[in-house]
Amino acid sequence: MSDSLPLCPECSSEHAYEMGALLVCPMCGHEWSPENAGDQADSADAERVVKDAVGNVLADGDTVVVTTTIKVKGSPAGIKAGTKVRGIRLIAPVNGHDIDCKVPGIGAMLLKSSLVKKA
Ligand SMILES: [Zn+2]
Could you tell me which residue ranges the Protein YjdM N-terminal domain spans (predicted)? Predict the structure, then answer.
């Protein structure tokens, strides 16, 4: 038995006890779930929002246009500004790159969301 049980939210009695997943107050009969008290903690897990160069929210499967010419190792031309990239996938950032996609003529690439614009 833990002696750090919370006070009853109804009558502030300190005699609440655990019954399964619930806390029960013998003084007023109130039953409540201690889980509910931790709701605020969940908001930290809110989904990360990825935005393009002008602030549009990007989503998996979006088509974007590259806003500036990007140098690519092994490709003399690089990715030209205005290149359309279909079916992007948002990923956890890798060196600041948070879009996984296939660039026409180049292949699978990681891009920065700050260098594209939603088409
Ligand atoms: Zn109570």
Answer: 4-33
Q: Which CATH number belongs to the domain containing residue 96 in this structure?
A: 2.30.30.40
Whether the predicted pLDDT of 41 surpasses 50: no
Domain that holds residue 27: 1-44
Find the 93 Cα to ligand 1 centroid distance in Å.
48
81-110 mean pLDDT = 94
Q: How do residues 6-30 score in pLDDT, each as one tens digit?
A: 899 999 999 999 988 899 999 999 9
- pLDDT reading at 59 higher than 60: yes
| Tokens read off for 3 | 């002696």
Ligand 1 centroid to Cα of residue 33, in Å, is 13
Cα 10 to ligand 1 centroid, rounded to whole Å: 5
